TrEMBL record:
It is a multi-pass membrane protein. Belongs to the SURF1 family. It is found in: Cell membrane; Membrane. The keyword Secreted does not apply. GO terms for cellular component: plasma membrane. It comes from Mycobacterium lacus. Residues 246-270 are annotated as: Disordered. Pfam families: SURF1 (PF02104). The chain crosses the membrane at residues 12-33, 178-194, 214-237. This is SURF1-like protein.
Amino acid sequence: MRRLAFLLRPGWIALALVVVAFTYLCFMVLAPWQLGKNTRTSRENHQIEYSLNTPPVSLKTLLPQQDSTARDAQWRRVTATGHYLADVQVLARLRVVEGDPAFEVLAPFVVDGGPTVLVDRGYVRPERGSHVPPIPRPPEQTVTITARLRDSEPTARGKDPFTGDGVRQVYSINTGQVAALTAIPLAGSYLQLVEGQPGGLGVIGVPHLDAGPFLSYGIQWISFGILAPIGLGYFVYSEIRAHRKEKPAPPSDKSMTVEEKLADRYGRRR
């Protein structure tokens, strides 16, 4: 037990606590974070691939009511007939399209016999100093549009909507926030116009089908979580073996007096 007492020194305890904390973070925070991103990316890739190979359906089959949300049908192409509320306009700012800054232009669209949905008309580039450029009004007559269903984005923390250059601006496309801002009820999912649609602006394409590195990152964090306590155990085992091999050194002859040396010598002869 005395030989193992060195393991209770503050340095060893601190090292053990660091390893335990690191292992906890690997298994409970870092690995689930990366694996969760991989799950979301895989789900979105499947939805995009399905939408590319499936003909459009009527919007009212997926959003039959005003409070409807179609989370399982994101990126699905839909058609809708109705009219824009041309006097209502909101910009989503600080967006990036094809690597450059952009505003995304949002407008409510009243579906005939269906809900009112938020439509992302596409993007425009900001003018110098991030000012809003002139934006063409959408048509006011009844039109038929084809668009992709999109999930409402979470609101940006600490960034409230504001009015700039005479236009209301938000930091995320959240249908609930836009509904509160415009006082117009909106469905839970929104629409993103495809190319060549009435009221369309710069077309926002679909993301590339790339699974990304999230799965490999998640596996790496799991591996680190396994190796850390194994490494600590091997280090402790090595230190214990080293301590067990240590033996007290025999007394040196230089430390003995002449009388002790003579007594030791003659005592051995007898």
